[in-house]
Structures are given as C-alpha cells and as structure tokens.
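quick one, two chains, predict together pls
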Amino acid sequence: MAVIADITVSLDGYVTGPNPGPSNGLGDGGEALHAWVFASDSPQDRDVLERSMARYGAVVMGRRLFDVVDGPSGWSEDRGFGAGAEPDGAPPVFVVTHTQPEHVRLADQMHIVTEGVAVAVARAVDAAGDKDVSVMGGGSVIRSVLAEGLADRLVLHVAPLLLGSGTPLFTADEPLRASLHIDDVVATMHATHMTYLVGAVH
Amino acid sequence: MAVIADITVSLDGYVTGPNPGPSNGLGDGGEALHAWVFASDSPQDRDVLERSMARYGAVVMGRRLFDVVDGPSGWSEDRGFGAGAEPDGAPPVFVVTHTQPEHVRLADQMHIVTEGVAVAVARAVDAAGDKDVSVMGGGSVIRSVLAEGLADRLVLHVAPLLLGSGTPLFTADEPLRASLHIDDVVATMHATHMTYLVGAVH
C-alpha cells in the first residue's frame, strides 16, 4: 500500500492552462495535457493508465478539480461528480474542501472531507485496503500531501508542451525542497511518465 | 546542423538554487542538479555527456552563466572563462551580454557578443561548421532562443530533486507556448534526459 501523488503536467510545470474552471475544464489549451489519456494509441500509455487504475483502491482530490471533472454543474447543482454514473466497483473518492457544500447529491462512493488533506488521505488509506491511494490533484492538494510528508511516490506525466501560464504545480510561494529517487520512467510520444520515490520534504 | 537549447533543471523547473552567483555557483543546493555530470557512474549519463560534447561545434551562453562557470573572478579580473586552460580543440564559445566588459582577457576561443542572442547564435552556427550549436544557458538565454524561434531542439536534463526556489527556467513573466515533439528520453538514477523537437513557439 502506497500513497501516490499522480498528476499530469506540462513541460513548463502547469497542471492547467490559463482560465481553468468548471465551464472551461483544464483551461485554455489545457486539454492537450491529457492527450496521453484521450488521444494516444500507444500501448504504453494505455498500460500506464490501466496499471494505475488497477492499483488504486481510493482517490483523493481537491474541490476545484472535483468541479472541473464534474463539469459545469459543480457543487451548486443537485448532483456531484459521477452521481449515478459510476460503474460498480469504482474506487471511493475523498474530496478535500474547506466547507461542506449544501446543495450536492453525491454518488455513493464520493465523500466530502473538510478536516484537511491529512484526514482525507487517512480515510482513503483505510478505504483502499491493500491497494494504493491516488492523490490526483489539483496542484494545491499535491503540494499539501508532499509538504506534509504523506506521499510515498510522485508520478508526473510530463506532456510535451509549453503552456506559458496557468496553474503551476510547484510555486515559489510554497516552496518544497526534496530529494527524490527515480523509480521508473516510461516515455511515449504523448508523455514522459516519471515515477519518483519521495524522500524527506522540507 | 542543429541549434540545441541544452540545460539541466530540477523537477520543479529551476536551473539554479537560491542565491546563485560567481561566489556561490549554481546557488544553494544547486550543485545537486549536476550529479549526473559529476557524481554518476552510469554509462548512460556518461554517454549523454560525451555524445553532446562530440556533437557540439560551438557554444552560446549568457553572461551570468559565464561568470558562474568562471568562478569568483568573473569579468572584473584579468582573465575569462578558461583563459589559457582550455584544451586544444575546445569549441568556440559566444557569450551574450549587454555591454562589452572592460577588464577581461579571454581565451582564444571565447567571444563576446553584445548584439543579442540571435547574432550570437548566427555566429555560433558559422563557427560550428557541420556540427551542432549548444545553447547552454542560463535560463534567460534559453528562453530567448526559444522565443525567437532559433532552437531546433530542447534538451532538458531533469534532476530528481525539488529546489523550491532559485532561477526558474520558464517564467510567467515571459510566457512561451509551444508544441514539442518527444524525440528521445534516457532515464538514469541521476537525471531524465529529455530531447524535444521544437515546433512553433508563440
């Protein structure tokens, strides 16, 4: 069992393009980040995706990512991410947010966590059993799990593009210093999938 | 013949740690960036280095990098980078700077260019003959050659560490947008060597 911070990032370090949000997904040009998921016919890309989906027993994500994944409906509508649409056996998802939303009907496997990222990870670890926990973003949640020493591995899928602006994964405002150990690198046309073991972060 | 922007960068996108300068090299903790050059016994790291050195017929670098490479002496002393110390056959180096330094004695293969990065690259291309030109930094010179469409390839040696702060390779102040094409990836314990073909930059 491992806690794995797992996110796709441009070569210049952005996890979205500019102007991300529920009505604009991953921001201007941001959808190109995920060509390795949606536009690749590489067996290696598919293998990376399928292996991680098979490995993950629970997912942690932040509120903003939840809203993006959920599309324009967001919190304010009568349904949350995947309500009624998730296949049986979809892993439980723990959404980190500061305040409990009032108007949202969540799918059974969705859980709101208002006590911070460490509690969300702990609950996900419990729920995952022998499987791994995927912390899938956004950037601020990834930074928090790294800063709080909660992540065993960091997986970056580095897309071959420069976005120029958007949401940075790492920010000078919240600097993280760490030695990492390269565990595995898989390169395809659409991404370089880099897995690191996370050492002490300070 | 190709113009290759070639630089080592931390996973969080810094080409130096904080406080870089002639008396502090690549900044606090920055020397760890180049473990793949100086502390690796990997034949693959050595091969990456030797192949690029064999391929480069001329080098372009910025003034600040020159000063760092040159150590504490910098411009103000009576000798420049490698004066008298370069082996025969060392490639010519074109140093981009705004103002001609007054007190510097340069080795024969060193040239000062005050007319901007495009002129430096053009002179390097002339000097390189059939070989490639390496634009080896620092960050601002790399950004300029990308922004001006002068680079055919971008080689990033991504070191497995988070520096947290320092000199960023890509900055929100000078955003570059580009589609890149992955050409080659070599992964070792000390770095992931990523070569991209550079498409249109805007």
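Helices of chain A lie at 35-38, 43-55, 63-70, 117-128, 139-147.
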